[in-house]
Amino acid sequence: MPTIRLAEGLSLHCAVDDYLWPWEQPTPVLMMHGFARNATFWNRWVPAIAKSRRIYRPDLLGCGASDVPASVYRFTPEKIEAEIVGVFEAMALSRVHWVKPELVVEVTYLSWTEENLLRQVSYQGEREDKPARQVVRAIPHPWAIHESRRKAQPICWT
């Protein structure tokens, strides 16, 4: 599987599923995984799509077989964009069919660490009442925040 070197010196892994004849040149498919996933998320889709398209499934930094950045590394939209552009350049892709997951689920945050990090996220189920783009951050009622964490700004999504 190809490895793509980024400007920071880190490497991305990119699974390539290519079962076509060399002279077949349909528009390829780029399958991007979502948060806390990797390229294997799409494994069940590959057989059906690979019959007629080349598939590129990159693992973003910190996911799957890609390099894990140092703890001081900060993910930004610009850095993630640079990773995706790096895939396009390394694989000589000028045009793709882009596939990305959009799934809205409800979670409950059970506790917070002393460093104000989430611990024990509990999956409640899928939500079909609104699309992913309409999910917004909600501030919980003060009684929902433990007394020792009152100055913390918990993240709740509704």
Which features does this protein show?
globular; alpha/beta; 2 helices; 5-stranded mixed beta sheet; two-stranded antiparallel ribbon; 2 domains; 27% strand; 158 residues; Rossmann fold
**C-alpha termini separation:** 39 Å
**What is the overall silhouette?**
globular
Low-confidence stretches: 150-156
CATH superfamily of the largest domain: Alpha/Beta hydrolase fold, catalytic domain
What is the alpha-carbon Rg in Å?
A: 19 Å
Spell the H/E element sequence.
EEEHEHEEEEE
Mean pLDDT rating? 79
How is the secondary structure organized here?
Layout: E1 3-5, E2 11-17, E3 29-31, H1 46-50, E4 55-59, H2 77-90, E5 97-99, E6 105-112, E7 118-126, E8 137-138, E9 156-157
Parallel strand pairs: 3-4, 3-5
Antiparallel strand pairs: 1-2, 2-4, 6-7, 8-9
Q: How does this structure look, described?
A:
The chain is of the alpha/beta class and 158 residues long. It folds into 2 domains: 3-99, Rossmann fold (3-Layer(aba) Sandwich); 105-157, no CATH class. Helices cover 12% and strands 27% of the residues. The strands form 3 sheets. It has a 5-stranded mixed beta sheet with strand order 1-2-4-3-5. Strand 6 (105-112) and strand 7 form a beta hairpin. The longest helix has 14 residues, at 77-90. The N and C termini lie far apart (39 Å).
